[in-house]
């Protein structure tokens, strides 16, 4: 059975969500996907390997390795939990570097994609602001650099609408001049699930395409374009209005099904009618057909985004500092994020 998620028009940047949709349509596990799930202390880690082109087509994601860290408790702004997530992220990222063959002395360029003037899109610049950069020390005073640090530089290239230059062109110029061994690109993503917005971190080794989360597919940051391995780190900060409406139908169906179990049979069908018989793709298509002509298929973000974006940026920056620099003390990681 050959599936193509483009027919479903569900916009998501998360590999785990694409896998879930593909399995629903496929009727079971998709061949060519290897998945491992660990869950501890409220932190769920899913390691997903897309091993061949057939699986890639079926889930709509490139062949590669994907790690998803889901922490619903991040919404509570618990500082202790944030430190645990930073440590978990650092551990997973370190293992990820080993898996793809990045050596411990590799020179790293961190690229914070996004628009710092738009809060949901400011993740990349905020991570760059909090990252521990060291390249200037290696360049100016290499004999004074303590053991346990590696050469790290960082840039927030802005967005095409502000600079008039594609982010990939800016990064390509920097790569040609500074010659890093690895690029880490951070960007905001889009999700199909409200529960995953601002609570999920994805790591992938397939590079990144600026603007893909909102449907703007342009020249990306990939190994093929830049000549350097590129790891993408993303956090979903937005959903489409059509996706939210579609999710509401699922929540309503679940609610009325529970009510039916309590002695009101047939209530779901009476209230939702033919919508209960439509597939997710068909229902989403109907919602988009109503919203798009009115210009109402908006990109939506939670009202608490100001606090969430700062917190998740600090979590990622702290985790990167721990993973990239052996000398960084986990007990004092907060000192590198302010």
UniProtKB/TrEMBL annotation:
A single BP term in Gene Ontology: spore germination
The lineage's top-level taxon is: Bacteria
Mind telling me which InterPro entries this protein's record contains? Pept_HybD-like_dom_sf, Peptidase_A25
Name the UniProt key words of this record, in alphabetical order.
Answer: Hydrolase, Protease, Zymogen
Which EC number(s) are documented for this chain? 3.4.24.78
> Which one Pfam family would you cite for this protein?
Peptidase_A25
Enzymatic reactions: Endopeptidase action with P4 Glu or Asp, P1 preferably Glu > Asp, P1' hydrophobic and P2' Ala
Give the stretches traversing the membrane.
none
One MF term in the entry's GO annotations = metalloendopeptidase activity
UniProt keyword Cell wall biogenesis/degradation present: no
The record places propeptide residues at: 1-13
Q: What does its PTM field state?
A: Autoproteolytically processed. The inactive tetrameric zymogen termed p46 autoprocesses to a smaller form termed p41, which is active only during spore germination.
Indicate the quaternary assembly. Answer: Homotetramer.
Q: Which family does it belong to?
A: Belongs to the peptidase A25 family.
Summarize the protein's role. Answer: Initiates the rapid degradation of small, acid-soluble proteins during spore germination.
- Alphabetized NCBIfam families for the sequence: GPR
What protein does this entry describe? Germination protease
**Lineage of the organism:** Bacteria, Bacillati, Bacillota, Bacilli, Bacillales
